[in-house]
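Dear Dr. H.,

I hope your travels went smoothly. While you were away I took the liberty of generating a structure for the chain from your last submission, since the lab meeting agenda had it listed for discussion. I wanted you to have the full record in hand beforehand rather than looking at slides cold. The sequence, exactly as received, is reproduced here:
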Amino acid sequence: MKIVTTEEMRWLEERCAQEGISNDALMEKAGLAVAQKTREFLGDVRGVPLLVLVGPGNNGGDGLVAARHLSDWGAEVAVYLSLPRKEDDPKYKLLESRDIATYRAAEDGDFSALRGLLASSRLVIDAILGTGRGRPLEGALAGILSHLADARARRSQLRLLALDLPTGLDADTGEVDPLCPTADVTVTLGYPKVGLFAFPGGTHVGRLEVVDIGIPPHLARDVPQELITPDWVRQTLPQRPMDAHKGTFGRVLVMAGSISYIGAAYLACEGAARVGAGLVTLAAPRSLIPILASKLIETTYLLLPEEEGILSPAASEVFLSEAPGYQALLVGCGLGQRPEVAGLLGQALLSARRPEIPVVLDADALNLMSQIPEWWLRLRGEAVLTPHPGEMSRLTGQSTVEIQRSRLSIAREKAAQWNKVVALKGAYTVVSSPGGQARISPFANPGLASGGTGDVLAGAIAGLLSQGLSTFDAASCGVYLHGAAGEQVRREMGDTGMVASDLLPRLPLVIKQLREGTLDWA
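The corresponding predicted structure, in token form, is as follows:
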């Protein structure tokens, strides 16, 4: 599913007009779809008091259409015009013909009428400002939203449905006005907007529903960013033929672990195995193998030279000699950042001797690479980088605040510069290809903000690479499976106390549900 910027949405509407699909037709379909989602949200709307807050532009026009349909279905609809609309507005005239109660902020100086409507309504539809927001929230708009906030603070049962996006949320950046309301559900039109998957805007969206308003799909073909959906993942996952053997599903070589981070190696190897890799081999310090072997009983081992539980530079020779027998490499989880590890990685990863096998670089591999000028010019072959914002900060020299403010654009820019796939982790993880395509995860789960979850993700991506997926597809599918597994854990036990190993048995279950079509949420 494509995700659009304000400019892209405006361009799509212009293209629709060129193909004979009028703005009026789009508005009619949008308003009807919002009314239908309102009915789904509430159930039977007959006799239910609803308030539609209407703005001066197209978003307000969509709200007027929704109000008309809801009234036709028996709801007790009231419309509150936040700002004047044109005298000859056909959508408003249709409303007048139905005797729907209408109020104007210009005639409600002390907002007493608004307070009364808020006190009696079961649900409010926010159709004040959409993607065209360019004005500050002041004057009447500020007063309306302040009274809405007060009413919801007093009446927890008062629900809010945002039309396209909550008023005050920037559709491109996710920045919000202090008065931006928090919706229970946001019904976004045609395609979701980029700002709905950025913060702080993401906290104001509630449940996101996307509705079709009649834009022909081929018009959006060249939009470069999209949401990762279960249908796409289902179609992209590696096939599992009945006559398969372990070689069918590839071999993953994982260089991970140190005396201080033993668990990282376990989580990474299990992540690869749980998404279906045929064989996983752990290349780790020799002294750690007896500890890990008690947990990783299906994994094979490559014993590497070490110095007191930390890999030594001599390990690069062993690693390079074994790497050609594998279809995917994973390097970095829990290696530590001692100088000898930096030397090892320089020799193992940046050497012309390393076979051009796809590699996933995570954690300490990224931290150590950030210390090498123009490392990307020496890193041969395809790679997936999986930085969290702190690691991305070290790789780019930009602050984490800057990165979080512009996650999509920075991930896209760096993927192009480095000529590698970048999976910028966090809420709504962004996966970007060197060619400028980007895919965004639908998941934002605070339960995943704990040590080790990134190791599971890196392992999952490597496991999918070993089965033949491209770096971009493997990263995208891995991000989705990891996020969906986290959602399952959160639904069962909450997000407090979730640990990385909780995800491991969920990965194959999510894949099973995707294949069967029983994964019934985004």
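Two observations you may find useful: The longest strand covers residues 279-285. The chain has a mean pLDDT of 96.

With kind regards,
E. W.
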